[in-house]
Recover the amino acids of this structure.
């Protein structure tokens, strides 16, 4: 069926030939049909990637959300195997009451297992747990020639490592087997600490290494003496308490896309000042994991607040030696521009070997923020930021990206040449088309 | 937690599966009836992972059970030790209206699947619940059964007939501990409706519909429109004067 599809950034509505198999056994035949009809295909989960990596304009899109069945959970060992379309939200319903939690979670629970693998997502515990891919025990990969390849760290290992973080280009991930972590309770013990300058962020991060989860929110508009002020948040699973998959409270939603972006200089300044000064900015106590990990999931379709033109997300990581300097420079440029978002996130990654060939996380500091799409002005600002990231030897996150230059991608991901050997010839995305079309100065790994 | 014993007729339907997941989460024991053994087995494994105390497959052609309705029902009830707390009748076909207009055999086939066979299942199940002295019977009808329309009156007649049948049963059991709930969903985003243009506020997810069914059953309701706003929409459609209605291409 022809259907327009948008990614989370709402930048463009793109026509696809869409198929949504209800059962895993329907996936392979539909995959062939899509390839025959359009020449190419890409798997698509819950559409939380921001830019063009989940899109395949004019081609086939195999939507996995109905393939969401669990095959088995071992409640003694915490091993779960399920269809790739199972979301983390549904996974929690299955595992949390039995005392198990996903080992790594991104900032939304509305992602599928397949998407979590294909983007090798990370969370607030990267410094102790690595990324999602580190906890994948095995996966079933359907190639366009019809074969189903059983991949694991010790079986078809090359294809396994290419598929983790492989942006869906190595084939259709049909099922995933993961190792969960044991939890005693669905509550978190949380400490929020206000800091008045980005320098303090680095100190707090260093002091918080024994906390499994840590992240900071930053006021991207503050300048000078209070450049990069924010709230540092750290947490751990509580040693006792209830085991509830969901907290008891009603959901909000942004029902329609407003005609203009609600995020502008004025509203942003007001929000940031209020958020920084709110009583909760200094807090020590307990809360349900949902509020700690997924604050934005409480407002369905929050992406609509940026209006019909959508928004860009910019997420980079810079290595430790350059981190203080580069992050300060990035924040200064963003503050001077007066644009940016309410949600600016700063986090230190640990020194963990990457799980996949194209995995985004690496040792250093990652900065993520949204920019309302104001056309050329926004693109120019991000091009400025690119220069700092490139000079520091950093890289950008493809799952968030809709505009990075191909040479920045090539420089940031030296294993890309190795990765290319594992791409399935029928799989394609708009992101990959963009990386392939532009001239690249790819380093041969 | 002790869950209910539940028979799902048409367990591969998207709404039925979501309802089964709610029951599984409460530790239910389920019998999953349908034709496609592999799909039913995949659903059974998932329900077990979600906390079901049991999930057994019953391979049955629900529109025409080879062993007959009584024997097929008895076999399912036996899998649950003879005790059945809830029955969800969820199978059905959308059917091709134009094909049914052109071919009486096709028209009869659609009516048999969506109404005649469904009423037979309600009959054997209701008699079982009556002998037990309690239980809940849930039949998924449709808003399409509230007024005949040119675009789908064969489907609508079958679902309307089913709803009337279930309503009569609810009347029969009024004042007893046997409950009969008629469900009238609007548009649901399922594989069955993939041929239609989707999107917009009228479309509901199967999760939402299943949750509405579960809530209505717990309250002991006899009819539920899901989502709720269809009650208002169908009241208007039922009461439109013919002069206006006949000009509409719906």
């Amino acid at each position: 069926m022809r259907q327009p599809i948008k990614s989370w950034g709402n930048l463009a509505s793109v026509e696809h030939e869409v198929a949504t198999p209800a059962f895993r056994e329907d996936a392979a035949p539909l995959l062939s049909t899509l390839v025959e009809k359009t020449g190419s295909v890409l798997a698509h989960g819950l559409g939380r990637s921001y830019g063009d990596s989940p899109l395949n304009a004019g081609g086939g899109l195999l939507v996995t959300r109905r393939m969401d069945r669990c095959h088995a959970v071992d409640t003694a060992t915490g091993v779960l195997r399920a269809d790739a379309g199972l979301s983390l939200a549904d996974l929690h319903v299955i595992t949390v009451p039995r005392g198990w939690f996903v080992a790594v979670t991104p900032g939304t629970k509305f992602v599928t297992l397949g998407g979590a693998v294909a983007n090798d997502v990370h969370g607030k515990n990267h410094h102790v747990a690595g990324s999602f891919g580190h906890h994948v025990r095995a996966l079933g990969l359907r190639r366009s020639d019809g074969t189903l390849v059983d991949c694991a760290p010790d079986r078809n290992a090359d294809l396994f490592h290419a598929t983790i973080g492989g942006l869906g280009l190595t084939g259709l991930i049909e099922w995933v087997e993961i190792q969960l972590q044991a939890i005693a309770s669905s509550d978190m013990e949380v400490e929020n600490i206000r800091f008045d300058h980005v320098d303090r962020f680095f100190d707090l991060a260093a002091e918080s290494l024994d906390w499994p989860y840590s992240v900071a929110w930053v006021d991207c508009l503050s300048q000078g003496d209070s450049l990069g002020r924010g709230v540092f948040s750290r947490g751990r699973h509580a040693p006792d308490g209830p085991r509830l998959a969901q907290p008891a409270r009603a959901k909000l939603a942004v029902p329609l896309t407003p005609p203009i972006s609600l995020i502008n200089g004025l509203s942003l300044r007001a929000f940031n000042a209020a958020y920084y000064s709110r009583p909760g900015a200094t807090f020590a106590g307990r809360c349900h994991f949902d509020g700690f990990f997924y604050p934005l999931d409480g407002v369905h379709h929050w992406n609509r607040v940026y209006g019909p033109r959508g928004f860009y997300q910019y997420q980079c990581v810079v290595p430790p030696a350059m981190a203080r300097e580069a992050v300060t420079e990035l924040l200064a440029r963003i503050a001077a521009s007066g644009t940016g978002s309410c949600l600016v996130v700063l986090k230190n990654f640990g020194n963990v070997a990457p799980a996949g060939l194209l995995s985004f996380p690496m040792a250093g500091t990652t900065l993520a923020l949204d920019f309302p799409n104001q056309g050329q002005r926004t693109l120019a600002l991000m091009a400025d930021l690119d220069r700092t990231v490139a000079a520091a030897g950093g890289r950008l996150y493809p799952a968030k990206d809709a505009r990075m230059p191909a040479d920045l991608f090539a420089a940031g991901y030296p294993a890309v040449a190795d990765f290319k050997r594992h791409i399935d010839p029928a799989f394609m995305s708009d992101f990959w088309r963009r990386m392939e079309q532009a001239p690249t100065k790819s380093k041969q790994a | 937690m002790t869950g209910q014993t539940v028979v799902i007729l048409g367990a591969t339907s998207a709404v039925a599966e979501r309802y089964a997941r709610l029951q599984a989460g409460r530790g239910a024991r389920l019998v999953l009836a349908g034709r496609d053994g592999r799909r039913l087995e995949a659903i059974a494994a998932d329900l077990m992972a979600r906390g079901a105390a049991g999930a057994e497959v019953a391979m049955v052609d629900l529109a025409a059970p080879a062993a007959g309705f009584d024997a097929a029902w008895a076999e399912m009830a036996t899998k649950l030790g003879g005790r059945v707390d809830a029955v969800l009748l969820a199978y059905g076909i959308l059917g091709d209206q134009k094909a049914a207009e052109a071919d009486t055999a096709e028209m009869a086939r659609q009516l048999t699947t969506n109404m005649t066979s469904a009423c037979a299942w309600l009959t054997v199940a209701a008699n079982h619940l009556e002998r037990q002295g309690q239980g809940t019977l849930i039949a998924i009808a449709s808003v399409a059964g509230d007024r005949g329309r040119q675009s789908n009156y064969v489907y609508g007649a079958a679902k309307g007939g089913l709803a009337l049948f279930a309503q009569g049963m609810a009347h029969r059991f009024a004042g007893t501990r046997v409950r009969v709930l008629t469900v009238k969903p609007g548009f649901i985003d399922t594989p069955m409706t993939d041929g239609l243009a989707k999107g917009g506020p009228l479309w509901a997810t199967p999760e939402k519909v299943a949750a509405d069914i579960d809530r209505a059953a717990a309250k002991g309701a006899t009819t539920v429109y899901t989502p709720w706003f269809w009650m208002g929409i169908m009241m208007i459609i039922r009461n439109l004067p013919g002069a206006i209605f006949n000009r509409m291409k719906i």
Residues 320-337 of chain A form the longest helix (18 residues).
